[in-house]
Design a protein that fits this description.
The chain has 2 domains: 255 residues, Naphthalene 1,2-dioxygenase Alpha Subunit, Chain A, domain 1, CATH 3.90.380.10; 108 residues, Rieske Iron-sulfur Protein. The longest helix is centred in the last third of the chain and has 30 residues. The protein contains 7 helices and 17 strands. The C terminus is likely disordered. A 7-stranded antiparallel beta sheet has the order 1-10-9-4-3-2-5, with no helix packed on it.
Length: 400
């Protein structure tokens, strides 16, 4: 029996009112296999999904393989310098072409040696000369739509998807002085099979309410009461973000509570007194501090598990610092304190969502981001809900 009923759809309405009256989303949508499958079709099939940084593949022939929305994907830089994404599945017998990352002139299927160019074209097919009416042009690797934003690579399985960048414009003024396209990323690390739903991860990342409660002492410099939501929500937006002020300039998420790396030289004094925390659902969590930016790429696996790829971005001059490697270790050690505390909390939240006593709670004003995230989610749930009586979203109303 389906849980995708009109009653469940109607129950979302109380999660998108003003933060002073809204209640949290129904626990079942964090635990149901059926609901995650619905999200894969309604969200992950149509929204822009972050797969990494463009700097990971700087040269012609560079590529990496990733898994997103149950699909194996190749992201590669062609001989023309353009970044493309396409299925990693050979169009002959379904063999996965590559794993990991590397550099090549073409992709060769290890099963039967079908060979594809860096643009996905099928260019060689051994012993296919006796196959009637066979045309290599009919069997390229399926291309996936790509857009670059602030140095991040996004893909979209929906060939008719609208451009991403205009929908992120609310947040861009807060990033201008970071010049993110020219930042350096020393590498990423991935946490696998983390035991919570992808929405729990998004909510925790942008939750100002727990800042110096769960993270007391180490985050007292960036307290919950200095959370702010500076730009009004827009239902056409694909970014949910907030700022959080510091009690001293150049704060840092480490044991010293001060920035360890060189400060981004273009920042204003106001920007050195705050961080920003942003969601670009359904895959990217992103934040800024005076000396670094940080990102979490989320890949759902089951209703109860996700993989999380974590990386840091620094100003290029940071690498010139003679103690860069040591400072990076110190900075990362500080982040790991937050990660460990958040892992414990989100694991227990997910466990709680499965309880018969799980409630639909109420929000603090410091959780305004959650209501905005709910609005982003629910307009898409409504758009794809399997019901003839689904209500229109606000965006759909305006375009009717």
């Amino acid at each position: 029996m389906t849980i995708l009923t009109d009653e469940l759809l109607a129950s979302f309405d109380t999660s998108i009112t003003d933060v002073s009256t809204a209640e949290t989303l129904p626990p079942v949508i964090y635990t149901s296999d059926e609901f995650l499958e619905f999200e894969k079709r309604s969200l992950f099939d149509h929204e822009w999904l972050c797969v990494g940084r463009a700097s990971r593949i700087p040269n012609s022939g560079d590529y990496f393989q990733t898994r997103m929305n149950d699909e194996e994907i190749i992201v590669a830089r062609g001989t023309d310098g353009a970044i493309r994404a396409f299925s990693a599945i050979c169009q002959h017998r379904g063999m996965q072409l590559v794993e990991g990352e590397g550099n090549c002139k073409h992709f060769v299927c290890p099963y039967h040696m079908w060979t594809y160019g860096l643009d996905g074209r099928l260019i060689a097919t051994p012993a296919m000369d006796r196959t009637k009416d066979f045309d290599k042009k009919r069997f390229p690797l399926p291309n996936i739509k790509v857009e670059l934003w602030q140095g991040f690579i996004f893909i979209n399985f929906d060939a008719n998807a609208a451009p991403l960048a205009p929908t992120l414009s609310r947040y861009e003024p807060f990033l201008t002085n970071y010049d993110l396209e020219n930042t350096v990323c020393p590498g990423t690390f991935t946490l696998t099979d983390m035991p919570w739903n992808w929405k729990v991860m998004f909510e925790n990342f942008n939750d100002g309410y727990h800042a110096n409660k769960l993270h007391h002492t180490i985050q007292d410099f960036c307290p919950s009461e200095l959370a702010a939501f500076p730009v009004p929500w827009d239902d056409a937006s694909n970014v949910v973000f907030r700022t959080n002020g510091y009690i001293h300039i150049d704060g840092g998420f480490n044991a010293t509570t001060k920035a360890l790396m060189p400060i981004f030289p273009g920042l204003t004094e106001e920007e050195r007194w705050r961080s920003t925390f942003a969601l670009m659902p359904p895959t990217l969590c992103f934040g800024t501090a005076p000396d670094q930016a940080f990102f979490f790429i989320i890949r759902p696996k089951t209703p109860h598990t996700i993989d999380v790829e974590i990386g840091y971005l620094f100003h290029p001059t940071a690498l010139e610092h003679p103690m860069f490697d040591h400072l990076l270790k110190m900075s990362d050690a500080g982040v790991q304190v937050f990660v460990a505390q958040d892992q414990d909390a989100t694991t227990k939240v997910q466990r709680g969502m499965r309880s018969r006593f799980a409630a639909r709670g109420r929000y603090s004003w410091q959780e305004e981001s959650h209501v905005q995230f709910n609005r982003w989610l629910i307009q898409r749930y409504r758009r794809h809900w399997p019901s003839a009586r689904r209500p229109l979203t606000l965006v759909e109303d305006r375009s009717a």
